[in-house]
Amino acid sequence: MGYKDFDRGKKKKGNLKNLLRIIAFFCIITLIYWVSNLYLKIESIEITGNHNIKAEIIEEKLSYLKEKNLLTIRPRLIEKSLINSLPLEEARISVKFPNTVLVKIKERNIAAALPFNSDFLLLDVMGNVIKIDSDIKNYSVPIITGITVKQAEIGRIPTFQEEQRVFSSTFEVLKGILPIQNQIVEIHAEKADEGTNFFIYTVDGIRICFNQNRLKQNNLKNLPNILEDIRKNSRGRGEIDLNQDIPVFRPY
């Protein structure tokens, strides 16, 4: 009997030690959680890489992070959210202890400018608004004319007075002429009975015209070579008609 009682006593002591270890473990976890919540609350967001998008706009998108525990944020989800809601090519999220979230972004390139009231909308190649500015002297991008903007918001495609398809067609054309973007000063779009008519003006006074539905796609692809040939042979100003099977240049 004495040995049995002794064994039972040892088991009780062992169980008590295990219980105390478990309690101590949970106490430590609770203490760590409490301390981290107390000392690792997000207090500031540092943003780098932004040139056209104001830091305040990015901070507003991330305002839900304030007061959260720095250890609980999920960088990949935050990066994806920023790219989906702002005209960004890249976003990288990291942390700086004890209270700071670091945001490094790469903005999309400005592809065109579109008049809006007394300002200009600076757009990426997808048509999203990157910036609204009253002066575009520092931007070597074509101006889109012939389209009236109804409403605009940074990070979104504008809404228009006319049919949205004219704008969509314009940006399909813009993608096609990106190799000569710096040679273009204006892209004028006009709604036609069928498709959209385009009149594109170069820095040296050449007008390129075509209808979206009648355009020969190879002609648009070959436009850089066509312009180079015209300049190389000093043919001066004139109009290039891309609706024909073979592009036609008509000197002024």
Automatic annotation (TrEMBL):
Where, subcellularly, is it found?
A: Membrane
Which region is the signal sequence?
Answer: none
Which InterPro entries does the entry link to? FtsQ_DivIB (IPR050487), POTRA (IPR034746), POTRA_FtsQ_type (IPR013685)
According to the record, the segments passing through the membrane are: 20-40
Where would I find the POTRA domain in this sequence? 40-108
GO cellular component, alphabetical, reads: plasma membrane
Keywords attached to this entry: Cell cycle, Cell division, Cell membrane, Membrane, Transmembrane, Transmembrane helix
Primary subcellular site in the record, as a coarse category: membrane
Superkingdom assignment: Bacteria
Q: Kindly list the biological process annotations in GO that this record carries.
A: cell division
A matching Pfam family? POTRA_1
Which PANTHER family is this protein grouped with? Answer: CELL DIVISION PROTEIN DIVIB, CELL DIVISION PROTEIN FTSQ
Q: What is this protein called?
A: POTRA domain-containing protein
